[in-house]
Structures are given as C-alpha cells and as structure tokens.
Specification:
The protein has about 350 residues and is an alpha/beta fold. About 40% of the residues lie in helices and about 15% in strands. The chain has a domain of about 140 residues: 2-Layer Sandwich (Nucleotidyltransferase, domain 5). Strand 7 and strand 8 form a beta hairpin.
Length: about 350
C-alpha cells in the first residue's frame, strides 16, 4: 500500500527586506503551520540568484519546521512574496521569472513590501503603507482598488530617508563639526563612539579604506534619534526631516488617490518606527492630517509577513475566521521562537552565481 502523503500547505507567505526575510506556511483556514525568520545579507540585483537564495534560505527554514522536504516542489499552492526591491515594472518581471524558475509555489504573486505593511496593519483592503527601514517607500490603495506607488530606488527617484540616509547624514554632520565647516553637534562624539573610534575622521578613513563595511552606516539611525531626544539641534533637524518626508509621501498618495475626504489608515512599518520618540510620530500625524483630517496613523506591531499571509488568504477566499486565526497566531515571538533549531542547510535551489 502506498503511504499517505500529507496535503501541501495552501499558502506560502514571504516578506523580504534589507536585513531579514520572514516566511510562513498556512492552511486555507488561516492556521499557521510554520513560521521562521532568517537574516538577509542586504540587497542584490532584484531577481538574481543571490537575491533569490536569500528567499530560499527562509523557505528551507520554514519547510524544515513544518517537517516538509523543501526539495519537493511546490511547497505550497499559492505564494505571496512581498519584497523590497520590487519597485519598477522591470523589477517585477525579473523577480517573477526567478520565482517561477525556483518553483516554490504553483502560483506566485509578487508585491512590494509596502503592501505587506499595509495589509498587516489594517483589516481593510485599502489605505496607505509606509516602510522606513534601511530605505523608505510608500504605497497607497484606494477603496476601488486603484494603486499609487513611488519608484523608491533612492536619490535618483527623489527619495530621502531610512537608515542609509540618516546614517550618511549623521556622519556628514559629524565630520563637518570636527573640521569646522559645520555647526557643533553631539554627533561628533556619538558617531565615532558607535564604531569604537574617537573621531569622525577615523570613521571616514575606515570606510574609505574599506576596513569598515558601509553596510554598517544604517546602524547610526538609532544614534540620531538618541541625540535628538537628548536635545541636539542637528540630530533633531534630521529626525524632523525624516518625519516630514514620511508625511509628504503618505499625503501625496492620499491626494493622488482622492482620499482626502475619507478616513484612510496610514500604516507605518520598519525599523525607523521602532524608536518610540513621540514628537517624531506627532509630527508625522500632524503632516498627514493636514491633508486628510480623518486619517488614522497606525504603528505596525505585527510582523509584516502577516500582511503577506492576509493578502494570500484574500486571494484564496479565506473568511473572517481564517484571517482572525492567522492574525492571532503570527507574531514576532512566533517567528523567532525556534531560532535554536537549525534550518535546512542546503536549499534545493539553483546555487548562487
């Protein structure tokens, strides 16, 4: 007699950013079968094998927790992949080709990570999602399904904000405070101290000579908030600029989608929003409500991968009970509870080039 084979999960949800990738397997009823978080190594060309290998690590880990062979494809019927880097149509096409080539799911659905933040933070299908972590991005969805997005590929698309820009700005001001071109700021001491150095010029030299990886610059963002909270004018100006950028992006999305007279939920997700400094959030809220007085600003506390799961349940026609079950179960603690367990070490995927 042929042994019974367990039915594969209905849904694989993935949220991938600049520092981590979360994956979850769910049943059609919203039951969480497995959920894992793995570190990501930063951005690669969207759709290349290094980019996809980061996802493969998360898929292998969640399959291992569920007791499933990640090499037995597909691992789920539907896949919802909410990924940083899916910004332009050319990105979407390239990433989708890669997802189909890997074959993790019978049907892959690709969205930018802002969609996951939005859906994780509200039970509505519309509103505005803002991500501010390593970088910054924003997506708006109208009640009738119309979408407004920013390209969000850095300075060349008019962006400013997130860990990269705050970190570079902090070092810029620290250097100028040291050599006399800029005003005095406590960042002059705080920036090099963060890296175990004494002077900003030492940080500059270490970066120039590549003894210090530039990927560590975003780690200065919390230092900027700390110094702003302590009363430093330069750091405070950077924090206010960040708040204004976030309010501006959200407000533009609201206006372009003609939602100024509605009560859109504006969901804020990403590492920058974990600073806990109330003046920062009040400035964001004031800026958004100047455009949409009834808007509700929501600070996301759930992991964004919940949004990928909710979007998948939307596609599958999951009812209220399925959505409620997934929302209750899929927490940050759930994603990190099994970190002591070793994920599958060799994903059954194409090796990186």
């Amino acid at each position: 007699m042929t042994p019974a084979v367990s039915r594969r999960p209905a849904l694989l949800g993935v949220d991938g950013g600049g520092s981590k990738t979360d994956a979850v397997l769910l049943g059609r009823d919203g039951r969480v079968l497995a959920a894992r978080r793995v570190a990501s190594g930063g951005y690669h060309e969207t759709g290349d094998d290094a980019f996809l290998d980061q996802i493969a690590t998360a898929v292998a880990a969640v399959c291992a927790e569920a007791g499933r062979d990640p090499g037995r494809l597909p691992v789920a019927d539907l896949g919802v992949f909410c990924l940083a880097g899916a910004d332009l149509p050319v990105d979407d096409r390239r990433i989708l080709r890669g997802l189909r080539r890997r074959g993790w799911t019978s049907e892959p659905v690709l969205r930018n990570d802002t969609f996951a933040v939005l859906r994780a933070g509200t039970d509505r299908s519309w509103g505005v999602g803002v991500v501010c972590g390593t970088g910054t991005n924003c997506t708006g969805v109208a009640p009738d399904g119309r979408i407004f997005r920013f390209p969000a590929v850095g300075g060349i698309s008019g962006d400013w904000g997130g860990g990269w820009d705050l970190g570079e700005a902090a070092l810029w001001h620290a250097i100028r405070a040291q050599d006399g071109r800029g005003e005095a700021t406590t960042l002059r001491q705080a920036v090099p101290a963060h890296f175990g150095m004494r002077r900003p010029s030492q940080v500059m030299e270490a970066l120039y000579l590549r003894r210090l990886p530039e990927e560590r610059l975003p780690g200065l963002a919390p230092i900027v908030f700390e110094e702003a909270h302590a009363g430093d004018d330069v750091a405070r100006a950077l924090v206010e600029r960040q708040a204004d950028e976030i309010a501006t992006m959200a407000s533009v999305a609201i206006r372009r989608l003609r939602m100024t007279g509605l009560d859109p939920h504006v969901v804020l997700g990403g590492g920058i929003f974990r600073n806990g400094w109330e003046p920062f959030f009040r400035r964001i809220e004031d800026g958004i409500r100047a455009t949409a007085p009834a808007a509700r600003v929501v600070r996301l506390t759930a992991p964004p991968v919940l949004g990928a799961a909710m979007l998948g349940l939307d596609v599958l026609g999951g009812g209220r009970a399925a959505h409620t079950r997934a929302r209750a179960a899929l927490t940050h603690d759930r994603l990190t509870a099994d970190t002591a367990r070793r994920p599958a070490s060799t994903p059954a995927t194409t090796p990186a080039r």
